[in-house]
Specification:
Elements (H helix, E strand, L loop, with lengths): L1 H8 L3 H7 L14 E3 L2 E3 L2 E10 L2 E8 L8 E4 L5 H8 L5 H16 L1
Antiparallel strand pairs: 1-2, 3-4, 4-5
Length: 110
């Protein structure tokens, strides 16, 4: 019995769950599977980050129609070249870039 009372007093996972924002617990939508030559694939919303793990390049993937809880690290070979290219060399519209530069300049000069 001492172990169970000890667990309740420790801060950690359960305290974090109580303090988590509502979006963390949003219901999960079912992913549509589409057959390709290499097997089923799932829609990717965007790539978040890149790392090298045990000599392999991996990307942190945000899956479309899934909450942040379902991010996963995927091997570079599991992703399309276009998706990786869009992460490595993003295409930013000049008008959007100029608007951000103007906003930053105004903020700095104010």
């Amino acid at each position: 019995m001492a172990a169970s009372s000890n667990r309740k007093s420790l801060p950690g996972f359960y305290k974090q769950l109580n303090e988590s924002p509502v979006w963390f617990f949003e219901p999960v939508k079912v992913r549509k599977k589409t057959k390709r030559s290499s097997g089923p694939y799932y829609a990717v919303e965007r790539l978040i980050s890149k790392r090298i793990f045990k000599g392999n390049t991996e990307y942190l993937v945000k899956w479309e129609a899934y909450s942040l809880y379902y991010f996963s690290w995927e091997d570079e070979g599991n992703l399309t070249r276009d998706l990786i290219r869009s992460y490595d060399k993003p295409v930013i519209e000049k008008s959007r870039l100029q608007a951000n530069i103007d906003t930053l300049s105004c903020t700095i000069l104010s």
